[in-house]
Amino acid sequence: MIKKLADYFHMAFTTDFIPEDTENYWFQTEDGQTFGLLKTAITEVELNLLRTLFILIEDTETNSKNTIVQLKWQQFLFSHSNDFPFSEDVESIRFFYFQSKQPIADPINFEEAIKGAFQQPIVLWINNMYGIIIEEKPQSIFDKEEFIQLSDTLTSDFLVVIYSFIGQLHKVDMLLKEKFSMEKQCFQELLPYIEQEKTVLFYEAFPKLLITSTHLIDQKLLSYYLIESLQDEEMLHTLKVFLQYNLNASLAAKRLHIHRNSLQYRFDKFINKTGIDCREFSNAAFLALAIPLMTKRIE
Amino acid sequence: MAELKLEHIFKIYDKDVTAVKDFNLEIKDKEFIVFVGPSGCGKSTTLRMVAGLEEISKGELLIDGKRMNDVAPKDRDIAMVFQNYALYPHMSVYENMAFGLKLRKLPKDEIDRRVKEAAKILDLEPYLNRKPKALSGGQRQRVALGRAIVRDARVFLMDEPLSNLDAKLRVHMRAEITKLHQRLQTTTIYVTHDQTEAMTMATRLVVMKDGIIQQVGTPKEVYEKPKNVFVGGFIGSPAMNFFTGTLLDGKMTIGNVSLSIPEQKMTYLRAQGYVNKEITMGIRPEDFHTDLTSIEASQSSKVDVTIEVAELLGAETILYAQIEEQTFISRVDASTDAKPGEVLTLALNMNKAHFFDIETEDRILPDQD
Questions:
Q1: Does residue A201 have a pLDDT over 60?
Q2: For labelling, which of B57, B162, B275, B287 has a CA lying 20 to 30 Å from the CA of B295?
Q3: What is the average pLDDT score of chain B?
């Protein structure tokens, strides 16, 4: 459809999104593609028609008063821009993908409500039922219980059920865009499962992805931090032994000829870096599947 | 204030999983209705359908006569309280309570009035400036209730609001919610799996199993005249005892034990054609007696049993024993000096016995019995 629109509006059509631009009407498709149409080139009827098919960014801005940071993120993630939207001191990031079945009526207050649960959250609205929360400088370990409580709180105020998918801990670099795009795709494909569970972590959902969406299973999907950690041979061997010994730290330490505290130290290092606590069953199950996926390349 | 009508409500997932089947209920204004049942029985799903958080697959929901199926949750004028304390960690108690009203664009002075009034009702006035972290579990749950109260909604929906609290606090909050309902008189639907909570708080109970209503009635009705074996066993703690035996004319025989059935009950059982048939008898733990007067008065309905376990609870003693290899629990006076291994005579109050069809598990005796 975008191609047809480009053909129809020809010169008045653009995809190079400029947040501060006032000459174009900027629209967003459901899968996050942004395009602009010269205001002078379209009629009111055409505008209204396009509004029903796409999200007019102007509308969301009026509703949620998009900040410059939000717009920069939007541009970075959804258009061709390679300008980093984050400040230099931000090293890692986590994406939270959320959706509801009914419109979230008041985006400004929604953003206000979630503030306390995240470190510097930035909310990007794909539409009034679907959004992404970007948490800059997140804590390594994500507290799912707290998030479920927040979801219930939001439900009691906004009277909508929030379905969430919590992404991996990502390094801030040029690969982030690709990682985001793949994670977002996972969210879309896992939606029926997420609707049952309400809140699902990437690691919990990984086995499901292996069954339902094999085309998404790629090393590229894994966070850089995880890839880097698994490329460390000592860490990889430690994790393999720990899994082999059924998550029994004492036996694994014995097998590795190290003190239990040394093993604990390695785990802490791994958790801090990747956000994956291998002592938790769901995380360990994820690692048991991710390690062969990773080592396939190394071998 | 509101009246609710749930007419032939179904919740069907993926065409073949039916979570709620043909749910019919009329809820009167100011009632405190409790949906009770084991996990997965469909009670929360029904509540969420009333809230509009789950779509109704079939049937009609009416609030004050108006069809609500297609009305957005925010326009149903309901307030919800969840199991979680459901508070925003970065907001003070005042802000937490005011937030829902801010969303509804109420004027500031009206918000202030409502929050302060709710804080007064819930004894939260000294804590209005505190953050949730600085509150105890009970105080947090009171704030969660306050967030619902300020909304001044037509219907309160509470989904296991006390299950995250410790036992002592739960008992306290149970009374608090009952008092609150007496004061506000708001029509309330309360979901719990705890039958004690259900019995003590409800105006009427709705006992559910596998998505189907088993019985609707006042706590007394449900306790004294359970519609089937499930309700009899679910409501009451310790649970009702069930014995399988044969009904002879005038007697219930369980192996070699024979117990006389009062004539009024027998007449009905006879008329229903149960004589010489297998039948399930239910008897509550408190309907066993150990005092001499009861034993002398129940010559044809007493039984000698060997005590397996005796638990002294202070005011009463719980005894575990068997009648013809069928284990039962009795709750007797604490003065009963029974030790494991000892033989004790127990008198059964057969006037309080319940009889159920062995196939359908439905109550045989009429409701007025």
A1: yes
A2: B275
A3: 92
Q: What's residue A128's pLDDT?
A: 83
Spatial separation of the C-alpha atoms in residues B94 and A102, rounded to whole Å: 28
**Nearest CB to A160; choose among B73, B84, B85:** B73
What residues of chain B score a pLDDT lower than 50?
none
**Domains in chain B and their CATH numbers?**
4-233 (3.40.50.300), 238-357 (2.40.50.140)
**Same structural domain for residues A136 and A244?**
no
The number of distinct structural domains making up chain A is: 3
Asked whether the beta carbons of residue A102 and residue B83 sit closer than 8 angstroms, the reply is no
Clarify whether residues A38 and A60 are in a common domain.
yes
pLDDT at A295 over 80: no
HSE at residue B284, side-chain half, CA atoms within 13 A, is 14
Residues of chain B with C-beta less than 8 angstroms from the C-beta of A117 = 88-90
The HSE-up count of residue B56 (CA atoms within 13 Å, CB side) is 24
Say if residue A298's pLDDT is above 60.
no
Degrees to nearest 5, angle at CA B159 with A190 and B101: 90
φ, ψ for residue A50, nearest 5 deg: -65, -35
Question: Can you tell me which residue has the tokens 């290899």?
Answer: B325
Within a 10 A sphere around the Cβ of A136, how many other Cβ atoms?
Answer: 21
Which residue's entry shows tokens 């376990």? B309
CA distance, residue A18 to nearest chain B CA (Å): 32
Q: What's the pLDDT score for residue A273?
A: 92
Instruction: Say whether both A210 and A106 belong to one domain.
Output: yes
Q: Across the interface, which of B85, B86, B90 has its CB nearest the CB of A116?
A: B90
Residues of B in contact with A152 (CB under 8 A): 82-84, 86
Question: Could you report the predicted ipTM of this complex, rounded to two decimals?
Answer: 0.79
**Domain of residue A277, residue span:** 224-298
Chain B: closest CA distance from residue A52 (Å): 20
Per the domain annotation, does A40 fall within a domain?
Answer: yes
Same domain, A230 and A117: no
